[in-house]
Amino acid sequence: MQIHEFSGEEYEQSVRECFFPVIARTHPDFRGRVELQELDETVLLTRAHWGGPMQAARTDRMIAKTSTDHLILFCLYLGGNAHVHQHDRFAEVATFSGVMSETRSPWELVTPTGSRVLSMHFFREMLPLRTDEITEACARRVDPTTPAMQLLSGYLGRLWEVAEDLTASQRLDAGRAAIDLLAMTLRNVAPSVPGGEASASVLLDMMRMHVRDHLSDPHLRVEELARRHHVSVSRVYTLFERMGTTPGAYLRQQRLLTARAMLSEPRYARFAISRIAAAVGFLDLSTFERAFRRQYGITPAGWRREHLDSGPLQ
């Protein structure tokens, strides 16, 4: 766990390090604290507390100058209240309610009092909703009394408590589960978007689960997904377009994410790289190494050396 404590003058730098660049205004006696739990390089949990009023904004100019236009921030307010402005909408958020924002468009946050917030921060493409559905869900208050929100808030709270005791692969799975719960919650928040029928969402969720459960099958292809779920190949492509990806790209992403988690996990330290590649469905080691390097900018062996104290068998 990482901990950042800051004054009002240090707030902008702290937010830049923990989340993304903003312009902030605080009172002279403002104090804050942020604790970070990294579930994976793509998913971050934070717990923040600050005393006194605060205002933060992300402008068009800042968006143009930074590369963080593909991030999502979901905040669960445990104390205090806030006003969030994005996409010409204002959300008034009170204790135990939540709100989502995205970094690709201007955003403003105003907290008239001190606040305590549990947040989840992740890449936009990981949320299994269409681009228009994500935009429609931003800056909308999530009612804490709905069953879906109660389930999500309870899960995030418990995940924060146990995250440090989980293995790398367990943290990866837990982060995915949290994002899936968020998607389920948001479907009841945003106005319905044409083409977003519930049956399609359920079918897509089933396909994504099937992919994650069968990563070791090197013969898993889009044709197999279509056959097992009794739909056409074109229907499978249409469903994955809701996430802004293709079935093949999603399968490759999940294989590489799982391989990366295994390479970071001490209990797999004596596994040969080729064994890990086979465990996530790559029959050819060189193909796996090329895909891994293209995705993460480092070889599997290099990643393992950086994330384990002792070198593994090759």
TrEMBL record:
Keyword Transcription: yes
Boundaries of every HTH araC/xylS-type domain copy: 205-306
Domain of life the protein comes from: Bacteria
Source organism (scientific name): Pseudonocardia yunnanensis
SMART domains registered for this protein in UniProt: HTH_ARAC
Pfam families, sorted: AraC_binding_2, HTH_18
Protein name (record): AraC family transcriptional regulator
Residues annotated as transmembrane: none
UniProt keyword terms in alphabetical order: DNA-binding, Transcription, Transcription regulation
